[in-house]
Design brief:
CATH architecture: Alpha-Beta Barrel
Radius of gyration: 16 Å
Distance between the termini: 17 Å
Helix content: 25-40%
Strand content: 15-25%
Structural class: alpha/beta
CATH class: Alpha Beta
Largest sheet: 8 strands, parallel
Bound molecules: D-xylitol-5-phosphate, zinc ion
Oligomer: single chain
Number of helices: 8
CATH topology: TIM Barrel
Amino acid sequence: MEPGKVCIAPSILAADFTRLGDEIRRVEDAGADLVHLDVMDGHFVPNISFGIPVVEAVRRVTSLPLDTHLMISHPRRYLAAFRDAGADSVTIHIEVCPDPTDIMDYCRTLGMECGLVANPETPIETLFPYARQASMILIMSVQPGFGGQAFQSASLERIRQMRRWLDRAGSDAPVQVDGGINLDTAAGAVAAGAGVLVAGSAVFGAPDPAAVIRSLRC
Ligand code: DX5
Ligand code: ZN
């Protein structure tokens, strides 16, 4: 990732799954930097999305990095399978791994980057001890489980605090924000310190995704 550049990670949850390959090529051509894959297990979150075979299929149609957001209760069990499917990075919820040091080391052993994520109601301080090890910190700006929800503005202060903490720790890991990002909310998130914006409906629902991606970068 280029320093200072705001990266856009379209979430395929909002894509038309009957033509997933075309949808991914469309956002790649439109300038997406990463592909965000929302894996849900119906246990950690009250919804089921897709798993390893879809990651594998996405890997075959794009060379963009695959940013795999694991909304699952037992991430460790599946890390090697996600790596084999072609995931470049995984993001693990602190709520299911209160001490993620070992799992982050394991991800690196597998050759993947490892980010950490906190739900809106999880104290942001729970992430602070891992600022130096995490390749990215994701701040959820909606309850995980569904696309198309409204951005929670309380996330802005959490992004600010996280960015400040990473800077103090000497980490240039980006803060990623996920949920309700669109042309109205992106600028505030970037001003607060977000470097990676996940956007599902705003990108896949747009007639001209390239224009949306350009505007989301601010
Ligand atoms: C929510 C997911 C998000 C979601 C974003 O559980 O983690 O990535 O798909 O969707 P939008 O951009 O539509 O809010
Ligand atoms: Zn996500």
